[in-house]
Design brief:
single chain; alpha+beta; six-stranded antiparallel β-sheet; four-stranded antiparallel β-sheet; 10 strands; 17% helix; 34% strand; globular
Length: 182
Amino acid sequence: MFEKNILTEQFLITDFLPKILPIDYDKLKQHLLIAYYKNKKLGDEEIYYDYNYTQYDYHQHIQWIQDYIRDHYKGEHYKTPILVNQGAIIQQKNESIGNHHHIDDWNYNESPDMSALICLEPRKEASNVIFEYEAGRSKKRRWTIPLQKNKIILFSSDLNHRITQNINTDPIITLSFQFQLI
C-alpha cells in the first residue's frame, strides 16, 4: 500500500459573514477610520507591508467576527485558529497594497499559519486580492478574488498576495487577521 505524506499545504477558503451577526457596520467602520486618521500603523517602515496596515483598539464587533471564523474553521477543519495579529487596511483612492505574505522570515515558529481578509466597505468598483502560487509545476499560477462586502477570504499565510488599486473616490475598508492553528 502506498503511504502519502503531505509536506506542505496551501489553501484559499471563502465564505460570507452570516447576516445573523449583530454587527453595526457604521460604528465599526468609524472605529477603524479614527485609528487610521490617528496614523496608528502596525509597522514603522514604509518598505514593509505592515506599514499599510492600521492598528486599532478592541471592538466587540471585531471580536464577534473573529469568534465566527474560529468556531466555523474548527468545526470544519478540526484545528483551532488562535489570533496572533490583526489590523485594518484602509485603501484610499489610487492606493494598492503591494505583494507580500504574513510569514516572519526571522521567526518561522511563531509565524501565522492562516490569514484572513474581510471587506467591510468594498465600494462600487471593487478591488481584487491576487494570490500567487510559486511551487512546483504550478509555478506562476494566479487566483483573483474580488473584495466583496462581508466576504471572508482565508488563506495560507505564506501565500504571496496583493490588493489591486482602489479606483473609487472613497476608501475601501478591510479587516486583516493572522492565526496560528493548534
